Amino acid sequence: MPTPVFSANLTLTNLVTSVNNLSETFTSFLFMALGAIIITGLAAVLALIGVYLERKISAHMQDRVGPMEVNTEIPLLKKIGHGWAQTLADAVKLLLKEDIVPDAADKRLHLLAPFIVFAATLAAFAVLPFGKNLIISDLNVGLFYIVAISSFVVIGIILAGWSSNNKWSLFGAMRSAAQIVSFEIPASLALLVVIMAVGSLNLGDIVAFQTGGIHKWLIFQYFPFNLLAFLIFFIASLAELNRAPFDIPEAESEIIAGFHTEYSGMKFAMFFLAEYANMFLVGVVISTLFLGGWSSPFGSFLNGSAFFQVFWIALKAFAVIFVQMWLRWTLPRVRVDQLMYTSWKVLTPFAFVAMFGVGLWMVLLK
Amino acid sequence: MALFDFIFYGFAALTVASAGVMVFSKNVVYSAVGLLFTFFGVAGIYVLLAADFVAIVQILIYVGGILVLLLFGVMLSQKVAGVELRTGTMNVVPAALVVLGVFVVLFRVITNSAWAVQAPTEFEPTTATLGTLLMTDYLIPFEIASVLLLGALIGAAFIARKN
Amino acid sequence: MLYNFATVFVFIVFGALFVGINLTLSRLIQTRNPIPVKLSTYECGELPEGSSWIRFNIRFYVVALIFLIFEVEIVFLFPWAVVFKKLGMFAFAEMMIFVFILIVGLAYVWVKGDLEWEKPRIVPDQRYATVPQEAEAGELVA
Q: What is the spatial distance between Cα A34 and Cα A37, in angstroms, rounded to a whole number?
């Protein structure tokens, strides 16, 4: 198991018996806090990049150019062009917007909901392996933990919809919750094939299992069952992100903005940020589980230093995200009954098939 | 006081305070939020007991399943915010006697049980052990659990359908 | 292990702190001008009518119930999957019995229609079903 890079020379299994060794515990807390700050900043920046990418990719797919105006006045940065600073400007704008809480809304719950949604999304970043020793928290139950953390997000969404005291918010929130909850079952079942193959819930172990070249990636093992599991997990994660074609809860033409109708200014920005950070989370998780994580597809070539490892995982995560955005701007929206049909009557049976298949394969042929 | 104890008392305080909010709040949804933090506190205590898998299960099942179910149920009933949750105080004396009786029983149970008073010193991962035990020593309860779940599923679907 | 969970807890706290800092920052520099129109509930520009609490379909609750049962099943499946490689055929057979019993449950709920969501009924709009004769002619008579 890779040792987290921030633990330095602290022997932390002795935390239980360490008595009043304040400087030691304080340094470890400092390292944790540093890691948290870095990852928070990273998640925020990634979310901003994601918003910009979404606008540019959707624009080019629709044969237009998207935002080109905002390039800052700094000469060197201005030369990059292509409106790269657009989301920065949007962030500043949202900071300056008035926070309108309707009279009829429940003020405390209205304030609590963005906290729950964002904190839960960010907490899942803690277990992601960005490199061999670049995991903030190498939890033994890492994968299971990621599955569990999305249930916090559901509660946040329900509270947001309820507290707004608005028919449309509540309706959007309930639908969103039902959608996320329905697709959690096939998603978790699809993960089972990964766990069966690797024998561990630890994300570092899962990536270590896949190092050594593209032929070892889990998506190509136990063909076609792992591929089936990959597809099921990909589709289910689209639904969990409330992204098209499963974006009924955010359907702009139908129920305005769903559960965040009554949110404005920074609170809305937090929901928005959480959604795009979640998208990156899913991208990194899919890359880690099925596409080999931070390991290079060429085996040991270009696999040595942390720089290359981060490069590979970033590349794979961005590829997954690109496909997600591509699907959003290509496919029409699915009806809610079609959505439930897909989850319970198509994805779940196929996930069971994948699990049986891999199980039988492993037992009979190994 | 060691750091471990400090963290434990912190989580215990969180759990008890949230339980208090849950019990004494007049607003159903506030009670649900109190329940959310209670579950979170209990999960923290499980972690301190070296039960890492059970802590995550606590979050997954209780927060992700039961609390969502509870909130759906609350929001399916009309005019919830106006309803006073506390019924009138009648039959105070019999109620007080029952509460006192339950308290005495619980107190005797707590003081007479052989609790493990040492915090665990070995923090081993538990998932693999759980898996092996489920398949070997605890196989019969495991299979019975599946029948129980089946019964719960059919029963719940049946009751919900009648409504 | 405690270290890892402590890190996770610190992350949750910092996530909440990040939101808190941003909201406070926003509160300091935003405009504040609450007028009644802004504070009323949004309903596409119309005045809101009816109470906010509509009676929802029982389907939401049924879906959450079924989800809970299968989630508990998944909780049993995860530790089994972790030790699957080591335990071999016997463990596989035992788990298949478990999963099979629950698939029977899924089939039951499927057949009985508890997984159905209402299909939208499409009612043809009678008013514009036919194009009037004059418009088809192509001449706009004022």
A: 5
